[in-house]
Known about the structure:
Immunoglobulin-like, 4 domains, 5-stranded mixed β-sheet, 27 strands, Jacalin-type lectin domain-containing protein, Jacalin-like_lectin_dom_sf, Jacalin-like_lectin_dom
Amino acid sequence: MWSNIIVDNLHEDEVLSYPLVLLEGRITDAHPAENLFLDARLDDLRSSLWPISRTGHFKAFVLLPFPGKYAITLQLNDIAHRIFCIEYRPHITRFVVKFHYQICSDAENRDGFDAPLGVDNSDAVAIAKIRFTALLLQMATAELMHAAGLPRLTFTMQFAPDGLPDVTLLRCRFTNTHARSVDGQELTKLVQQDIEASGLDSNPELHFKHAVVLGCSRYNRETRKAEGHTALGDPRSSQQSFQRSTAQGWLDLNHTVVCEVTSRGGAHWNSASAQLLRHCPWISGYAKPSLVGPTVDWGSSILGPVGYGTYNGTQTDLPEKKLSSSVDDQLGAVMLDAGKYIDHIETLTRAEMAEAERTEPLRAAGTKHWFMLADGEYISRVDIRAMAWIDGLQLHTNLRSSRWYGGTGGSLHALQPAGGWHVSSFIGSRGDSHVAGKALEGGTKTPFSITLPEIGAVVVQCGRFVERVKVLSPEEAESNSRDPKFYLSNEHVFQLCPGEKLIKSEE
């Protein structure tokens, strides 16, 4: 009996704004055996084979070389045959995503990306791989937007005369050694500075969003860490669906692990994130002032959310606190495990805090910190820096402010309740812990020498890192406080009241 080829994700004659087409569908009335493939082609010279699952489902890519209307031939031996028509019509916009392959000032032609011995890792091969990856990313964005119930919106790229994405070779001014010695945030700033210095961002007609693939990245086998690398996401995968790629960047399927996906397991977009993304100028094609972005109105009971990354290993929900007007159930303490990021947060009620201190005092140790609230004290604002995860935060109460916990990356958010309200708990989840790196060392080490019988003030000189710490006697602190120009702009003074003593220092 003749079988039918059904395409489920696209309609006949549908218009797409991107050239790499994903066809998802099924073969009806067929019982595929092992190693049965669907032939998807534009003509005899442009064809590819795609595996069919035992239930008859398939996924196939077809690359449309230039804008226009196409008739794609789908064929399964002598079992099924179909012509599927599609139109490629690029979106015209001033907002364009531009892809770059970054190399350092001391990079040789074959000193590019990490690759096994004997594998070509030249700049030309790297650029070819990025061109294909850019096509995949553009198509995946459209499909994920569609899966969230929206039109197939995606970004616009610059294309070369051959119909593939235009990828620029970006030679930066810093060296490989320097790139691998700084953290991801600093590396991002260095690349951004070189993009601006090279004039790649100065176009009177177009507004660019730059996607940069770093050629300086290396995996250090001794430390088991990536150096010269900055990215979001989890690189681990239980199955590698692609085992190698051609010099042109096309990926070879690893047929031994091809399986039919029946759930949304793993990372996926929340529909609210898709709604926010569609108002980005590089997706919508319009400048932000012309659009009113969507907002979530929680009333006066919930602030946020911030930190949208939800795939860092196994996600564990933070425990929810019961609603109560009892003083014992009020927020009494916040525990934070903070290194480069906020790795864990836990709250105790006043009753739980009192019970815990009966058995063992709550003490800070390593990256674990406690912020305990006095009687009548409550949290009035939380300052948070976050991107995919929560980088760092600071707690403010009606009496004082905490130190800054965690890192300083990401965007700053100030979560402050309306008048008469205060923070009672934190809602969210945590994934696998982020491990902090080793402390940076540089310059001559000067040991601390404290011989003062009484400390009147502590002066901390710092920028991104603490550069110097010195202690003053009460007399020195009093004398210095009379001169408003005595301390430098990056010197912070913690002056003690008469009789006040330091009992603990958290670092």
